[in-house]
Amino acid sequence: MSALERAKRIVSLVEAQGFVSVKELSESCAVSEMTIRRDLQGLEQDKQLRRTYGGAIALRPGNRSALDSEGPAQPVLKPEGTLVDRVDVLVTSSVDPKYDRILLDRVGRRSIPIIAESTGVGHEETVVSVDNYQAGMALGQWAANYAREHGDEQAFALDLTYQLPNTQARSQGFVAGLRGGLPGAEVVLSINAQSRYETAYKLTTDALTVYPNINVIFAINDTTAWGAIQACRDLDLSPDSVLVVTFGLEGDTLKNALMDGAYCKAGLAMFPEIVAPVCVEAAIAAFNRKHLARQLTTPHAILTRETLPRLYRQTDAGWQIEWAAVRNSLSLPLDIGKTDREVGIALPKRIGFIVPFREHEWYKNLIACMQAHAGSLKIELEIVDADRSLEGEMVLRRRGIAQVAAEQVEPKDVILIDSGQITTYLAEELASKQGITAITNSIPVFELLKNNPGITLISTGGLLRHSTDALIGPTAEAALRELRTDKLFLVVTGITLDFGLSHTDLTEVAVKQAMIRAAREIILVADHTVFGHEAVAQVAPTSVVHKVITDEALPASTRLELAKRGIEVLVARI
Fold it and tell me: Given the DSSP bridges, would you call strands 500-503 and 295-297 parallel, antiparallel or unpaired?
């Protein structure tokens, strides 16, 4: 693919999707992320798109992202600044420990209240969620009763679960309820379907092929349930031979499947139409420093083909909740219909909502309902993709590391710069320096420094590895054997105290080892995510390192262990 063809593809993808990450563009165009970033810089200069943290967004107002494709009242993604600079309250769900740690670190310093949706992240004001265990148990009891009524005295279950505490509680509750009604019920497999349709489809297909006696499938959300249903259809299984039950009924897909009466005979409704305004009202209370219960338990209901129409009605626009029936039959944790506010209650200007799975109907509907409730109160709702937010945070941290690294460079220094994102940012910091000599195997670093006559610039030469824009091979290694430098700024993908420094790309390991031999001082530039992982190949023991420059999310215990080994630790603050 030529550069022109690549540019056209990038613009097309961005205009179609609204926002596309650098990683997605790199995979789509089969080039390195560094190359994509250079492409984006040029396309932004040509006013064909706008770069933002971790990717690019469309310029034309008519092109909106999938999240706000429902109409003009939908929320707009805000790329400017950092998240904590823009919001008064944050609504979020746990994504993974790494992300949660970064989020809490940044938000905690600004004292921004957090409302946790579905499951806690730590230090939240409250968690807005169904009682996952009890709801799962109720659904398990329903499945056991259904099996007995249809002549099945034994249940062989496939549990399509996920690793988060709330989804684990759903699975545990379901199994307890199923065994409560059918004491001999057996969980044949409990597998993490990663909350993805494709994974659920493949795992269900494999499980039913290997264990044809499976007759009950429990899915922790509609996405995994839909993957299981499609697998059953493609295996041409009789709808009477397997029962699929879902925890969610998040949107139209599973409601329609329920009404079809085939594999899905029941679903536990979590009501995004209720959860959304409860989240907004909880955010308002937290903004005003009002006391909130540790958990705001939202209602659930087990719905079947017969009972679904009691709480939802089918329209041309899809399934719509019947509010009168809901208020008569369900208990709500907060008053979401209030029109008058207490005297002295202030409304936040902007609520941020971090979305972990943009493709899920749960979040699509939650976004629409939160926007409607917040919009009625003149509160702006900002939707932030979790992956995008994490990438933006990591960019800030890596730039901070690069700034500290640049401060280590003194006049007349001869420095060796490894290839990587942080060292590319380092080159940006060094671009205006005078009186230094820089040696590098990185094409982006070379390009950033080549126009400064005050820098003596040396390339190692070698074979170009396109995926990382790094020069590797015998030529680069031979050049490094003939050179000596004051400082090396080294990049690796794994650091543990036992295995030492390690790297994923085997072809780059020999060059990194040659760099270490060529330098008098080894300065490791690494964000906190690199620590605690062992990559494929060892580069060197940690004893070769003189300094580590990292970000403040690296645990204090790890920093202390490095210091015990005589390694100076410098922390970049952002």
Answer: unpaired
In Å, the largest CA–CA distance within the chain is 85
The C-alpha atoms of residue 166 and residue 560 are separated, in whole angstroms, by 34
Q: Is the model's pTM score more than 0.70? A: no
User: How far is 262 from 229, CA to CA, in rounded Å?
Assistant: 9
Question: For residues 55 and 22, is the Cβ–Cβ distance under 8 A?
Answer: yes
Q: Structural domains in the chain? A: 1-61 (1.10.10.10), 89-128+276-298+333-385 (3.40.50), 132-269 (3.40.50.2300), 408-572 (3.40.50.10470)
3-state secondary structure of 316: coil
Q: Pull the structure tokens for residue 443.
A: 């094409």
Taking alpha carbons only, the member of 265, 262, 248 closest to residue 160 is 248
Residues 6+ apart with CB under 8 A from 18: 57, 58, 63, 64, 65, 66, 67, 68, 77
Distance CA 454, CA 456 (A): 7
Q: Is 489 helix (H, G, I), strand (E, B) or coil?
A: strand
- The string of DSSP codes covering 379-437 is -EEEEEEHHHHHHHHHHHHHHHHHHHHHHT--TT-EEEE-SSHHHHHHHHHHTT--SEE
How far is the C-alpha of 68 from the C-alpha of 445, rounded, in Å?
38
- Give the dihedral of Cα atoms 370, 372, 375, 376; nearest 10 deg: -120
Cα–Cα distances (Å) from 192 to 163, 213, 360, in that order, read: 7, 20, 17
β-partners of residue 95 are: none
Q: What is the mean pLDDT of the chain?
A: 89
41-77, pLDDT tens digit by residue?
A: 888 878 888 776 457 777 643 333 322 333 333 444 4
Residue whose entry in the numeric block shows the structure tokens 């009168």 = 324
Amino acid symbol at 380: E
Amino acid at 296: L
d(CA 455, CA 67): 47
Local structure of 94: helix, strand or coil: coil
443-488 pLDDT, tens digit per residue, is: 999 999 999 999 999 999 999 998 889 999 999 999 999 999 999 9
Backbone angles phi and psi of 55, in degrees to 5: 175, -140
The SS3 call for residue 197 is helix
Q: Rounded distance, CA 311 to CA 269, Å?
A: 10
In sign, the C-alpha dihedral spanning 223, 229, 230, 235 is positive
User: 10 Å Cβ neighbour count for 573?
Assistant: 9
Asked whether 219 and 200 are in contact (CB, 8 A), the reply is yes
Task: Give me the amino acid identity at 460.
Answer: T
Question: Which amino acid does the sequence have at 428?
Answer: E
Amino acid at 171: S
| End-to-end CA, the chain | 38
Q: In the chain, what percentage of residues exceed pLDDT 90?
A: 71
Residue 78: which pLDDT band, with cuts at 50, 70 and 90?
A: very low
E-assigned strands of 184-303?
186-192, 216-219, 243-248, 264-269, 295-297, 301-303
